[in-house]
Amino acid sequence: MGADRCYAYGAAAGLVGDLLLGDPRRGHPVAAFGRAAAAVERVLWRDHRGWGALHTVVCAGGAVALGVVAERAVRRSPVASVALAGAATWAVVGGTSLAREARTIGRALEAGDVEAARARLPHLCGRDPQALDADGIARAVVESVAENTSDAVVGALVWGAVGGVPGLLGFRAVNTLDAMVGHKSARYRRYGWASARLDDVAGWPGARLTAVLAAAAGPDPRGALRAWKADARRHPSPNAGPVEASFAGALGVRLGGTLSYGGRVEHRPVLGGDTGRAVRVTDIDRAVRLSRRVGLLALGVTVAARRLVKGRAK
Asked: Which residue has the higher pLDDT, 308 or 191?
């Protein structure tokens, strides 16, 4: 069995494992990586871009190296190769946890328990929940589902197709580092610069594929493409813009606008504003279902692309 076929079977098994099992409550490999990255930060931190870049190289490079060593260790055994690809895919994708958190907040809002929804929102995104009413929470959840479909599912599958297990682990490492140090706080404005820029680069292909698949799988493909073309470039993030705009158009809602992060207010452009309506609580479940479809399509597209490229290279 060839390496591309082993990866295809393993990636499919890993995604199914995530759908059925979700993330473990304790001992998640990504959490272990986060603890290791935090330990490296305690040693290297300086208010300097160069030291931050070294932190990025050590942590992300270490994850890639681990993937290379693991692949080489099992390359003679197709069964072990499939198992490794499956375990790595399950470890790095997070579609089920994303859906679970979003629906938990949605159920609280449906029950009229805004305080419970506010308490749960930090599990999903970094918004200031006290600044949001029920409609604002629903909008934040839909935006987070859209963005994390790219970050937690599609982007990982893209880099897995490109680089196998090292690609999977490397992408998740970069994405995790961005979440840890890539924000523009006083501590990380310079130290986290390299992680943030690398995450932009690594997330670029996955974000565009997510936007395309959201248009293809959503209830309004033309609306998704129209919103993507009209609004994506106005978003401050080069990757969240296409994804959120495509989801907004596909679902027929308006995303963006005024946001609050830790007391800092941002006024972002409205996405899907030409024809979209305000987000409702029921749109949370619609966004989750669209995210699921996008993830499954991404598996098929990335596996097929990998096999096609590998086949031509032989």
From this structure: 191
Phi first, then psi, for residue 271 (nearest 5°) are: -105, 135
pLDDT digits (tens, 9 = 90+) for 22-53: 888 778 899 999 999 999 999 999 999 999 99
- Whether the model pTM is above 0.85: yes
**Host H or E run for residue 180:** helix 155-181
Residues across the chain: 314
Which helix H or strand E contains 87, and what residues bound it?
Answer: helix 78-92
Q: How far apart are CA 266 and CA 280, in angstroms?
A: 22
Strand spans (E) along 3-116: none
The closest alpha carbon to 257, from 239, 238, 236, belongs to: 236
Write out the H or E segment, with its range, that includes residue 271.
Answer: strand 264-271
Q: What is the pLDDT of residues 154-192, one digit of tens each?
A: 999 999 999 999 999 999 999 999 999 998 889 999 999
- What does the alpha-carbon distance between residue 312 and residue 305 come to, in Å, rounded to a whole number? 11
Token representation of residue 279: 């987000």
Q: How far apart are CA 195 and CA 189, in angstroms?
A: 11
* Cα separation values, 35 from 25, 27, 42, 173, 266, Å: 16, 11, 11, 12, 30
Q: What is the dihedral of CA 137, 228, 213, 259, to 10 degrees?
A: -20
Specify the DSSP class assigned to residue 268.
E
Tally the C-alpha atoms within 13 A of residue 218's C-alpha that lie toward its C-beta.
31
- CB-based contacts of 67-70 (< 8 A; 24+ apart in sequence): 67/163, 67/164, 67/165, 67/166, 67/167, 67/168, 67/169, 67/170, 68/166, 70/165
Alpha carbons 143 and 312: distance in angstroms, whole number: 39
Q: What secondary structure letter does DSSP report for 93?
A: -
Residues 46-75 have a mean pLDDT of 97
